[in-house]
Amino acid sequence: MRLNLFSCAAGVVPAFFFVCGVACAQPAFHNPLVTQRADPHVTLQPDGWYYFTATVPEYDRIEVRRARSLDDLGKADANVVWRKHAQGEMGAHIWAPELHRIDGKWYLYFTAGRADAIWDIRLYVLECGSDDPLRGPWLERGQLKTGWESFSLDATTFALNGQRYLVWTQRPPEGDQHQTNIYIAKMATPLSLAGPATLLTEPEYGWERVKYAVNEAPAVLVKNGRVFLTYSASATDANYALGMLTARADANLLDRAAWTKSAQPVFATSAANGQYGPGHNSFTTTPDGKTDILVYHARNYRDIVGDPLRDPNRHTRAQPITWRPDGTPDFGIPVADKP
């Protein structure tokens, strides 16, 4: 396999993973890993550090922290690398940052609204040429254009077979559709697309349309010759759940017909374990690369007073992924907290 175009550091691909299928003892984590951090993104780098970023409840800044183990992320220093603008674009709703190492540079893909129009949500990019993303400096590279202007968020990126892709969430070009879909496109550079977007999934099942018609927050895991793309659906309360698309790794990923969509959620609320609305996940591995890890947020109560977006208690959690005999992931159910 060659990852020669906008490829990641050798041996590590932040948004997705090629890992062995060796059976090993399943790790257990002291959940929640990080309190009041939603939309978590974790990348294990060749330097042996786990780098972590997530949405802060104030929606006003981007933090990056690192630790040698996932359990230590909550105790690690939260380094503020960027703050929202007082005016204009990138001035509100700073959401869902993802940290990626591409061709020797760091990139932060994130979502932001305007200070004067907070729901004019778009995708933006920061770039850092330093080896240390905690220190920076970070440069603003502006809006990542998707081909049309509408509510857009939750960008992730991955490389496969020498090609880098962007996957993101956006309202469709048809302005009368009040829903969010997930799209994919090839990238020309880490800051731009190479061609038009392909619609991958839209909210069609009942469990994807509770209160709001939502498909958002894509994350990619590559293993066993397949591409597994998880996403989150419905309102950001106890109804929030993960769905999944699957394609062959050698398929044309820009062909919607190459993807198969799960008809049921693959990860959802567990009242028995006190975990509500799990979603907006990322993937990482144990340090030895032998066990895949699902990192996600969830609350530990069902009932929310007021707007769920103003409730700060979406906490970052993690648990191992197991694999079925047919080579597909089994995410299980959200495990109970284990402080």
TrEMBL record:
InterPro entries: Alpha-L-arabinofuranosidase, Glyco_hydro_43, Glyco_hydro_beta-prop_sf. Gene3D superfamilies: Glycosyl hydrolase domain, family 43. The keyword Membrane does not apply. It comes from the Bacteria. Keywords: Glycosidase, Hydrolase, Signal. The record marks D154 as: Important for catalytic activity, responsible for pKa modulation of the active site Glu and correct orientation of both the proton donor and substrate. GO terms for molecular function: hydrolase activity, hydrolyzing O-glycosyl compounds. Residues 307-339 are annotated as: Disordered. One of its GO terms (biological process) is carbohydrate metabolic process. The keyword Membrane does not apply. Belongs to the glycosyl hydrolase 43 family. This is Family 43 glycosylhydrolase. It comes from Pseudoduganella flava.
